[in-house]
Structures are given as structure tokens and as C-alpha cells.
Amino acid sequence: MFDTRETFILSIMIIACGVFLMGLSLYFFRRIKTYDDYNVAGRSTSTFPLICTLIGTAVGGSTLLGFVSKGYTFGMGQLWLPVGMTFAGIALYFFIGKIHAGGERLNMVTLADFLVSRFGEGVRVPTLLSILCAYAAITGMQFVAVATVLKLVFGLALPVGILLTWALLTAKTWLGGLMAVIWSDAILGTLQTLGIFFLLVTVYYASGSWEFISAASMPEGNPDFLSLTGISGHELAVYMLTIGAYQFVRQDLWQRFWAARSLKAARTGYAVAIVFTLLVGGAVVLIGAFAKLGLDIADANPDLSFYAIIKATLPLPLMVSMVVVLLATIISCADSFFIAGASSIANDIIKPRMKGRDDAFMLRMSRHSVVAMSLISLGLALYAPRLLDIWILGSAMLVCGVLVPTVVALCRRTPDPRGGVIMMWGGLATAVLWQVLGHPFGLHPVMIGLPVSLALMPLALRKPSLSLSTESAAR
Which residues pair with 45 in a beta bridge? Predict the structure, then answer.
């Protein structure tokens, strides 16, 4: 895709980008002294970096590639992807006060901590499994995204690129923790946002503006390419219930609420991020749709449409800048997911079994957990190197296992502990079984697992017995 000169310049910039990010992680490595520093950035993050990290994590590099590909292939109906993310995001906004207060009072690190405070220790394991299903998939997705860039630039085989990416991201995350992630996002999230809006304007005018785009011949078999209704009801439901509903139970998002220095910073940062996430996600889909109709990109591979678009519209310096920003954003986004999954391993597997160990020990365990999380994600990336498919599957596991119990826990202070455990295991086990069976009747696992979880919800809403209430409170 790139000629020799372009490849040489891209290579230099990619290496420089990697060195910069590793240097940033080394800087924060010296500043991280405690378990909280590593997992929740010392609970002292101010508003501006919080905004940038929330935007950067919501629309990361692999999301950019996937959304451009969806817009290029299926058209403007794919705008429902960012809209679906926004609906759940708005709903979550009204619970930030409760989430932040609970985290501050009980020093919460993971979503399991919050659910255990409502349902007792019995829910820690199913919550952990749901989180690991989702975040191993999402982290693996980042490995594939970076490996795709390396394949285009250096000609590396995809498995080799995945292995190199795994090594780099594991080292970066092991060093810097969430503190380095947030501050690198403050830089990279800003560049990403500006770059996406710049590319949308460039593609729009290079395509001949709306008059030319709307008059173009629609792709064969897709007459509704420019219609917001150009998406099937089943596909829309899967998006809304996976990558949409997933926003409500994103552990990396909850960790940022707990990382905020105050409730005001958390609310302000998240409110701004919701707006920009919708705008940036919509812009990405439009870039793909406009390029399909207005640019002369014959027979472009949809998975590589982003690269074909920037090559067709930008001069070399700007093209290199967009590739580097994309790569840096993927890396920064990936270690957010790394930390979320690794925190669950350290906090929900190791810590409960190592009571009495000091903070320095748990900090070491957090770094070891990053390595464990990376190996799980590496295996998944090598097994199923698809972008949005991996994300949607992982999100489905998390939604089926955790979404309904989390809503119950946020809305009811004393739910029934046994009901909560049954509800979690029922939704998660059903979704996993449906995936193993290969989606019988063409139904996605979320279409089965989530209804099962909802059907079991009355068990958690019933008034717990006195003994169960006392036991849960003691925990």
C-alpha cells in the first residue's frame, strides 16, 4: 500500500512514537509508589486529563479502524454505533455520584468491589470472569489493530506483528500503570480528536461535498447507503446491547471515576467526553461513507479502508501524522484495557487470598497481573484476529453477566445476595453456552444471555432474609 519512501518515513515515526511512549511510562514508573497509584492513578486526576482519557478510551484506534470500515461498507446507517454508545453513557452519568462516593469510602478498585458491597463475596468470581471475557477480547483487539499497521508498513505477517505488539504493550503497561495511561491520553486523545475532524473535512471536500456524494450511484445491493435506516433491526439490537450497553459496565470507565480528584471533576470530565465521543464516533463513520461514494478507491479492502482514504486525500507529511496518531492512540487505549483486566486479577483473585500483605506486595502483584492479562489477550488475538467481532463478543459476555446486577446494585441498597449470584451466573453461563454452540437460530449470545439475566432479576429484588442481610453487611 505504501511505497519505499513512505515506508521509510513511517518507520522512523513509528519507532520514535514507541520510544516516546516508553519514555513516558518510565517517567511515571518512578512516581508510582502505591497500589492505588498504579490502579486508580492515586485518586488525584484533574478535569482536563480526565476528559482526554475518557474520549481517547471511548474511541480508540481499533474503534476508528472498525467504524471507518463499517461506514465504508454499509453506509450511514452505521451511525447507530456511536449513538448506541451514547445512550448508555448518558444513563451512567446520573449514577456518577453514587459510584464515586462508594469508591472513595471503600477504596474500590474494580467493578467487583462495588458489586460485592451490595451482594457479598459470592458475586466476585462471576464478575471477574465477565470482566476478563470482555477485556481480554478488547485488549486482543488492540494487538490486532497495531499488528495491521505493522503489516502495512513493514510487511510483517499478522501473527508476528501481534507478538511484537504484545511485547511492547506489556512492557509499557507494566511500567506506567493507570497514571501513565491517563497522561499519555491527555496528549494523544487531543491529537486523535483534532485529526479525525480534520480528516472528515478533508474527505468531505475531496469527495465533492454533499451535492456530489448524494448524486453518486449507490453501492450494488445497498440502495439505502445514505439512509439512517440502512441497518437491520437485528444488527441494531446487537450493537445496542453489546457495545452500547457495555458502556454502562466498563471497568476502565469506573476506574477513571475513582481516579478523579473530586466528584465535580468526574462529572464535568464525563459530560464533556460523552458529547465528544458521539461527535468523534459519528465523524469516523461519515469518513468511511463519504469516501466510498466520493473518492476513487477502487476495490479497497474494507478492513484497510482507513489507510486507503488517507493515502488518497492527504500529502505525505499529513498521511504519516495520521498513521502515527492512530498507532499511538491504539497503544494508549490498549493499556487502559490492560489495566482494567489486570486490576481484576490482582484485586479480585490475589488480594482476597493475601490478606495482611503490605501495599508494596500488592503493587508487585498488580504488575505481575499485567503479564497474566497480556498472555490471555495474546491467545485470543492469535485465535480470532477480527476487530469489531472480538469487541462485540467480549462486550456481550460482560453485558450478560454484569449489566443487570449492576443496575440493581445502583438502584437498590439491599438486594438479595443469593439472587444476585444466581442472576450473574445465569446470564454469563447462557451467553457462553450460546457462543460455544455457534449462535443457534442466528441469534447473538447477548440476545439470549441478557433476557435470562433479566428473567432472574426478581430473585435479586426480593427482600433478603435477616441472616443474609447481616452476612452481606458484614462483608
Answer: 260
